[in-house]
Amino acid sequence: MTSDPIRLGFSAESANGQPQTISESLDLLEARDVDTVEVPLLWMELVLNGRVMPDRLAALQAALKDRRFQWTAHAAIGLNFTCDPAYLPLHMALARAHLHIAGAIGAEHMVLHTGFFATGSSSAQMARLYDQQRESLMTLAAEARETGVILCVENIFSEKGNRITASPSQLAAELRLMDDPNLVACLDVSHAALQCDAMGLDFEAEVAALIPLAKHVHLHDSFGRSGTIPVHTRFEAMGFGTGDLHLPLGWGNLPFDRLLSLGQFPAATIFNVELNKHLWHGLDDTVAEGRRLARMARVAR
């Protein structure tokens, strides 16, 4: 366990969705002495029609028992609080189920993505749905407070023309507007690069806007190039250097050192590495590089 101001975490893997299969990746991470582990609720068979499956939760709790890690959790990527209002109850039910699980495993943070809109959505439509998202997130933040979990809202990306979503600076403005201590940012550096490439935004300025709110940071490498070239396999995507590749740190060209100089992170921030499962052969170098980045980052006092 580190005594550094910023802890280093790593996202675990579940082999086939069954909670007990997370143990293999936990063994690998325990041998690398990471501080926190992000439990991938989105990849696990834990919730059915908005309800937690008690036997699956018990299996997950058993798999995590007696491990020395501190825990975080990642909720479903499909959650979208700027959805059609007719579907909002389904999104809230799944979010609440994942929040219940996060509380039951003692997760400090639960990551969930910011909303997205269909292309062609009008400004008036998006304004109404941003109101809906704020109300939803603030409701969940109040419930998270009761379970001891902090919600970390992650920036995502548009690619080019496939959806509309907030830039990192827009997400920062939304979080400041809600002004809830249980509602902070998850800065995903690669997602920020892809959004800036798609939208023609200033990468450094966008990252700098979110850093002061980012108690959680997702680290993985890419080339910041929107995935507009059709590919058939993840290896083709790697070959083209396009899209959200989740590469080992140092394999892409994201300027992590320079970005970390742009501001101060909140106290108790976690840097969590998200490495694609087929690239875990790069685990050792990525943990070492993640630890280096965590040590060089500045933290507000």
From TrEMBL:
This is Xylose isomerase. Keywords: Isomerase. The keyword Isomerase applies. The keyword Lipid biosynthesis does not apply. One of its GO terms (molecular function) is isomerase activity. Residues 32-262 form the Xylose isomerase-like TIM barrel domain. It comes from the Bacteria. It holds the Pfam family AP_endonuc_2. The lineage of its organism: Bacteria, Pseudomonadati, Pseudomonadota, Alphaproteobacteria, Rhodobacterales. InterPro entries: IolE/XylAMocC-like (IPR050312), Xyl_isomerase-like_sf (IPR036237), Xyl_isomerase-like_TIM-brl (IPR013022).
